[in-house]
Automatic annotation (TrEMBL):
Gene3D superfamilies: Phosphatidylinositol (PI) phosphodiesterase (3.20.20.190). This is Glycerophosphodiester phosphodiesterase. GO terms for molecular function: phosphoric diester hydrolase activity. Residues 10-279 form the GP-PDE domain. GO terms for biological process: lipid metabolic process. Transmembrane segments: none annotated.
């Protein structure tokens, strides 16, 4: 069932937790996002050698933010060699991905952190939610998948999806989760195997929206474009099809205001504090 696509103020989705403020996709980032008051935490998942669902944007250790187990930096050319799909999770935990500030986010506060398991993130946030006495948080879970990565950096789509769905079901958060992906193969499989799970097609190119939807073969609950692609015509087309709009990654105040004028269902941002400040002003 498709619900209305406009609400008074969009949901605030913390991108990789709150990447502008804390190390991305780490427990400190998710905790801070929850304390700030996000409606949903957005995170990325990949698979380890022992088939664990690991929270990470890349299926390798990023040279920009991660360090070797001995604390040394990772050479950019060597980053893909630290392939999470070839490492057991116990080994993944030996790398630090929090002490090095991301060069694009000068306000980020570095702190020692590892790439956590999805189940670890959810358990931690569910506990913190109870401590804060706030409503249950939603989860936007992006499955990182590319056809060229099959068998090299990830299992094939059916196995990849099955591992993630099994974890979501075990954590009992299916009713609060939206599954995101750029890879239409994953979404098509999810549409067949988990028809009640809201799915979000992510878009980052200038191929027409209608062409993307035709290639997908069904109407997703959500479309998530790079906000720089967004136009009033885009927003109107999605509303006409009862598809929710959740653009990414909107960070600057002027961009946030411009996107707000197009009445999205949600906004994904590295700085949820900025969007929450706008919501506070809106509600006053």
């Amino acid at each position: 069932m498709f619900l209305p696509t406009i609400q008074p103020f969009p949901e605030v989705h913390g991108h990789r937790g709150c990447r502008g403020l804390r190390p991305e996709n780490t427990l400190p980032a998710f905790r801070e996002a929850l304390r700030l008051g996000v409606d949903a935490v957005e995170l990325d998942v990949v698979i380890s050698a022992d088939r664990q669902v690991v929270v990470s944007h890349e299926p390798w250790m990023s040279a920009a933010i991660c360090r070797l187990p001995d604390g040394a930096p990772i050479a950019p050319a060597e980053a893909p060699q630290h392939n999470l799909y070839q490492l057991p999770y116990a080994r993944i935990r030996e790398y630090d991905c929090g002490r090095t500030r991301h060069p694009s986010f000068p306000q980020q506060q570095p702190t020692p952190a590892v790439k956590p398991l999805l189940r670890e993130v959810v358990a931690d946030l569910e506990n913190l939610t109870r401590q804060l006495g706030r409503p249950p948080v939603k989860y936007s879970v992006e499955i990182k998948s590319e056809p060229a990565h099959d068998y090299l950096f990830q299992p094939p789509p059916a196995e990849l999806l099955a591992l993630v769905l099994a974890e979501l079901r075990a954590l009992q958060i299916m009713d609060r989760t939206t599954l995101l992906c750029f890879d239409k193969r994953v979404l098509q499989l999810a549409h067949q195997t988990a028809p009640d799970l809201p799915l979000c097609l992510l878009i980052e190119d200038e191929i027409p929206l209608a062409q993307h939807l035709a290639a997908l073969g069904f109407r997703p609950a959500v479309v998530g474009p790079d906000f720089r692609l967004l136009t009033p015509a885009w927003a109107a087309e999605l509303r006409a099809q009862a598809i929710r709009l959740v653009p990414w990654t909107v960070n600057e105040p002027a961009d946030l205001r411009a996107v707000l004028a197009m009445h999205p269902w949600g906004i994904t941002t590295d700085y949820p504090d900025r969007l929450l400040a706008l919501r506070s002003a809106f509600l006053c």
